[in-house]
Write a structure and sequence with these properties.
The protein is mainly alpha-helical. About 85% of the residues lie in helices and about 5% in strands. It contains two helices and two strands; from the N terminus they run ββαα. The protein has a two-stranded antiparallel ribbon with strand order 1-2. A hairpin with a 2-residue loop joins strand 1 and strand 2. The longest helix has about 70 residues.
Length: about 110
């Protein structure tokens, strides 16, 4: 890089057009490099955000699947208990079903 002033025979000369053109070229190169660096940083940040979001979605999906499986197992257990109750005490089960039917009918007719 040329200096902006040159000392020749004890005198200071002003920069000439070639010096200015060279400095402008260097500035353009530096700006291009800076622009590329900023673009790379933005791309990397965007990729990191996308990866973090995908990871969070996977975690939430896995948790939801675990809860759904737990709820399904619980529902099957309740169904098996109801089936056992109906087999062991059919008269009581019929009475409970009739009572619930009457209660639902009574409440829906009061509207």
């Amino acid at each position: 890089m040329s200096s902006s002033t040159q000392n020749v025979n004890g005198k200071t000369n002003a920069p000439n057009s070639d010096d200015l053109a060279e400095q402008i070229k260097i500035l353009r190169d530096d700006l291009g490099s800076l622009t590329q660096t900023i673009a790379d940083m933005g791309r990397a940040t965007g990729e990191n955000a996308v990866n973090a979001a995908k990871s969070k979605v996977n975690d939430v999906r896995d948790a939801a699947m675990d809860r759904a499986e737990t709820a399904q197992l619980h529902a099957m257990e309740v169904k098996n208990q109801a089936d056992d109750f109906i087999r062991t005490q059919p008269a009581t089960a019929l009475g409970v079903a009739a009572g619930l039917g009457f209660l639902v009918g009574f409440m829906s007719s009061r509207r």
